[in-house]
């Protein structure tokens, strides 16, 4: 009877040890998975097609101020004059830039987007020019089209400046630099 009891005790002990070993090995590893995502979009760029040109304007002949405005939304005859007696002698043309990038994305337009001076060639006289912008489709700051597809938008540049009967005649110019960056 002792032999049977010894066999049963030994068998029970072996079963307990085997269960502990199985439980210990079941808890030693675990795994899971994750998805890896990447979004690749078109690069954004801006290219000048033509300059902003106010044409030729005769300054006022009386003590008055004339505002010369080049409307960026108008392709033909974009120059208008308000106030004073200045007269358009030769019509100018709006500036044009091409913006390319990923469709449906928003962008910031920075650089020469606020007033800056135009300086007379051969002199130090300046006139303050305030730029204005318009686009052919969508809005300034938003590319048309669907995400992950190439988009093109034309950006038109115009603006305004004031002259008086004391503005020194001459060719005035300045540099407009524009930068586009995805938001």
Characterize the structure shown.
The protein is mostly beta strands. The protein is built from 1 helix and 12 strands. The strands form 3 sheets. Strands 1, 3, 4, 6, 8, 9, 10 and 11 form an 8-stranded antiparallel β-sheet that branches. Strands 2-5 form a two-stranded antiparallel sheet. Strands 7-12 form a two-stranded antiparallel sheet. Strand 8 and strand 9 form a beta hairpin. The protein is rod-shaped, with a radius of gyration of 37 Å. The termini are far apart. The mean pLDDT is 91.
SSE topology:
Layout: H1 2-26, E1 45-50, E2 56-58, E3 65-70, E4 79-82, E5 87-90, E6 95-102, E7 107-111, E8 116-120, E9 126-135, E10 150-164, E11 172-173, E12 178-182
Antiparallel strand pairs: 1-6, 2-5, 3-4, 3-10, 6-10, 7-12, 8-9, 8-11, 9-10
Low-confidence stretches: none
Overall spatial form = rod-shaped
Round the Cα radius of gyration to an integer and report it: 37 Å
Question: How many H/I helical runs?
Answer: 1
The helix fraction, in percent, is 10-25%
What structural category arises from helix and sheet content?
mainly beta
Mean pLDDT: 91
The description of the largest β-sheet is: 8 strands, antiparallel
End-to-end gap: 87 Å
Number of strands: 12
Could you state the order of secondary-structure elements as H and E? HEEEEEEEEEEEE
Q: Note the beta-strand portion.
A: 35-45%
Which features would summarize this protein structure in a list?
183 residues, 8-stranded antiparallel sheet
């Amino acid at each position: 009877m002792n032999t049977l009891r010894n066999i049963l005790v030994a068998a029970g002990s072996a079963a307990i040890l085997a269960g502990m070993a199985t439980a210990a090995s079941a808890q030693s590893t675990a795994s899971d998975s994750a998805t890896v995502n990447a979004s690749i979009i078109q690069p954004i760029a801006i290219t000048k097609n033509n300059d902003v040109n106010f044409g030729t304007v005769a300054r006022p002949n009386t003590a008055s101020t004339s505002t010369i405005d080049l409307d960026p939304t108008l392709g033909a005859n974009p120059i208008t004059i308000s106030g004073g007696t200045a007269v358009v002698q030769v019509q100018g043309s709006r500036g044009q830039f091409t913006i390319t990038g990923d469709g449906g994305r928003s962008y910031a337009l920075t650089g020469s987007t606020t007033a800056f001076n135009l300086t007379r060639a051969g002199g130090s006289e300046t006139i303050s020019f305030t730029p204005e912008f318009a686009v052919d489709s969508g809005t300034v700051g938003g590319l048309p089209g669907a995400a992950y597809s190439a988009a093109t938008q034309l950006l038109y540049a115009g603006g305004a400046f004031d002259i008086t009967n004391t503005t020194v005649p001459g060719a005035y110019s300045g540099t407009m630099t524009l930068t586009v960056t995805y938001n």
